[in-house]
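Troubleshooting log. The previous structure file for this entry was overwritten by mistake, so regenerating from the original sequence record. Sequence copied from the archived sheet and checked twice against the printout by T.R.
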Amino acid sequence: MAGFVEMKVAGIALDPTNNAPIVVLRDLEGKFILPIWIGIMEASAIAAALEGVQYSRPMTHDLFKSLVETLGAVIEKIEVVDIRENVFYALITVAHGGSRLTIDARPSDAIAVALRTKSAIYVADHVIKDAIRVDAKSSAGKVMVGFEQDTEKLKEILEKMNPEDFGKFKA
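Regenerated output below.
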């Protein structure tokens, strides 16, 4: 696919300066790492998918997956297509009845859906070039983003969080 690089979710980290969650994408060859700052709810949804957590009732991204499948459609891929003024833009490609539909989405939501549907994640070349990113080769294979270097600290923070920490949203 010219113009796009397939990536996988390498994990979730926290920005040590403001505790903002970051989803970290890594290309399949391990050349680039792309951090995208996201909201706490989306970080929770992505982390749940990475860990295989199943809730007793469907969360929003699970509901989206279920709706698409019930309609007989398939999520083919998600693409992070642009970055403007440090805001990322993504598209979800849905195949249904011989046609393809693209749906505008925040990258964090698109990634949460992709993880649940096992869909491919692509990032446009120019996004990788223009975004804050890390060259994996120059970091000797280990990239430190936020608390990634201190997984025990991150685990401690997440374990101490209560449903009330998420505001009016509850699992």
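The chain has one domain: 4-151. Archived copy saved in two places this time.
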